[in-house]
Design brief:
With 121 residues, this protein is mainly α. It is 64% helix and 0% strand.
Length: 121
């Protein structure tokens, strides 16, 4: 019976090995997840930076176009286009005009609750 007592002394501790494998696996998965998320942060940051640059370019183009519109719709440019014949103007006849007598309107300095109240007077 003495020989049977040490029979399991050289057995492999499977529970301890399985525990360490699970712990190391969890640490490995956490490390890989951390690296993946850091990589995603860098990729997203680069994408945001390129979109911000594109937005700045579009804002610059918008400002240039607004300046061109202002130049092309100025009074002098319109006169030049009219003299070149690019713009055709038709005179407005008197039957199409509405004349408003400014002196007949009453000046009201108080605030009104209803905007249509003036029309009823």
């Amino acid at each position: 019976m003495a020989s049977n007592r040490r029979r399991h002394a050289n057995a492999v501790p499977l529970a301890l090995i399985a525990t360490w494998i699970l712990v190391l696996g969890a640490v490995g998965v956490a490390g890989l997840g951390y690296v993946y998320l850091k990589n995603e942060i860098h990729v997203t940051g680069a994408k945001i930076k390129s979109l911000e640059n594109e937005l700045a370019k579009l804002n610059t183009q918008d400002e240039v176009m607004r300046a061109k519109i202002a130049v092309l719709s100025s009074h002098d440019a319109m006169k030049r286009r009219l003299s070149e014949g690019f713009i055709k103007l038709v005179p407005v006849s008197d039957d199409r005009l509405v004349r408003v007598d400014v002196s007949s309107r009453k000046e009201v300095s108080e605030l009104r609750a209803v905007s249509n109240e003036r029309l009823a007077e």
